[in-house]
Amino acid sequence: VIMTSDAGTGIGYSGFRIRGTDANRINITVNGVPVNDSESHTVFWVNMPDFASSVDNIQIQRGAGTSTNGAAAFGATVAMQTQFPKAIWETFYVTLLSTALAVVIGLPLGVLLVAGEKGGVLPLPKALMSILNVIINLLRSIPFLILMIMVFPLSRLIIGTTVGTTATIVPLVVAAFPFVARLVESSLREVDPNIIEAAQSMGATPMQIICKVMIPESVPSLLQNFTIALTTILGYSAMSGIIGGGGLGKIAIDYGYYRYKYLVMFAAVVLLIILVQIFQSLGTHLATKSDKRLKK
Known about the structure:
Radius of gyration: 26 Å
Helix content: 55-70%
Strand content: 5-15%
Number of helices: 10
Largest sheet: 4 strands, mixed
Strand order of the largest sheet: 4-3-6-5
Distance between the termini: 66 Å
């Protein structure tokens, strides 16, 4: 492989070819998408600044290969895979899994905060409620970057390591479930007390009131709040790149900020914004669809 540039620095107008093959006879793809010009079959590398910073692997095949991209594939084929598709997937699954685990822990706690208070459907000892409130408030008050470091022993105990994409799930859940608990509490407090009193007058048990009255009546609000939690956790997952977490946050910090490749950092931020828009739009749609007050 021979790489040349006008300035001799690899930046700006550059050329790329494989020995023995004209540059116009090399089919080059990025994540499966051909980048050769449709007429001249040339690849204009000057239009892809900072490209090398995000390349994960390169596969080269000399000679004519199977391709649907025309004459450009007669000499050789170069397939480049960037880290962005993998990073998007890592961010996606870490965000969804962390949110799901945070909801599993935070939903019962939020229910207890409402049902267990004095005058609630399932009153609990005042000391227990005070301890529960203190723990939730304490975890919510710790900045996420500090909390990630504090839960390193827990991450090592559960995952076996403190570095990597999977390891960041533990601090994300620890940071998110108190937030989810407060969101659930606010949603349940919006339920009309008259509906709860009607269920009590008909002899419903506390668990029946919680499972068949309070939670179903607050579904639209819960979906909206879970969407807020999801987008918040997405932002947390990007911050986890500082301690070795994967995803778009790692690309933005390691390959963008630390290497002064601000275009890479900007691209990662744009992808995060797109993910937030997708999650928020989907959550708003589901919340609106489940709201009985909006149905004709």
